[in-house]
Model the fold of this input.
Amino acid sequence: MTTTKTLYLLCSAAPPVFDVARVIEDAQARGWDVCLGLTPTAAHWVSGSLDGLAALTGHAVRWQYKLPGEADVWPAADAVLFAPATFNSLNSWALGLTDRFVAGVAAEALGKEGVPVVAMPCLNSALAAHPQFDQSLAVLRGAGVTVLYGEDGFTPGPAGPDAPPHFPWQSALDAVTAG
Ligand SMILES: Cc1cc2nc3c(=O)[nH]c(=O)nc-3n(C[C@H](O)[C@H](O)[C@H](O)COP(=O)(O)O)c2cc1C
Done:
């Protein structure tokens, strides 16, 4: 299949980020040219795979802003998927705190016409009970983001285990493909 559309896949530091190579391959099989952006913590978690992920996508894996005057190394996005979105990253995005590269990319995407933005949070039920979380979901949904959380998306498990019980990556890819 010809890859003509560019997907920015933005990942923060929750355990599903360890699936990212397989998810990139699945997105490519659906026709996406994938550019991978990571939070600094997520980049640290997958630091041993960064060269391989760059080779897989054919683009630089980014977790830092470019320097002033440097060229943009990614093509323009046709869609943005922020997954897994940690409690920290989701709240930062909703609050407009863009000190992290992926938060800046995600924040700008809200103001770009015709670029669908999908987010799948990943957090436990204790963090989900924090009052900011519902507010952040409401802000992002109000800005047009398709937030896959609850019945049609990620369902939080209890606090404690290192990894969530299930992260529905295929639903996230379905949502960006649906546009
Ligand atoms: C093993 C492990 C699992 C974690 N899982 C999650 C998670 O599922 N959701 C979450 O919001 N934070 C989780 N965290 C905490 C985040 O990694 C931490 O808040 C980090 O600062 C998030 O940074 P980022 O949003 O910039 O990636 C986990 C941390 C560890 C060590």
User: Anything to note?
Assistant: Residues 5-178 form a domain with the Rossmann fold fold (CATH 3.40.50.1950). The chain has one domain: 5-178. The two ends are 18 Å apart (CA to CA). The first strand starts at residue 5 and ends at 11.
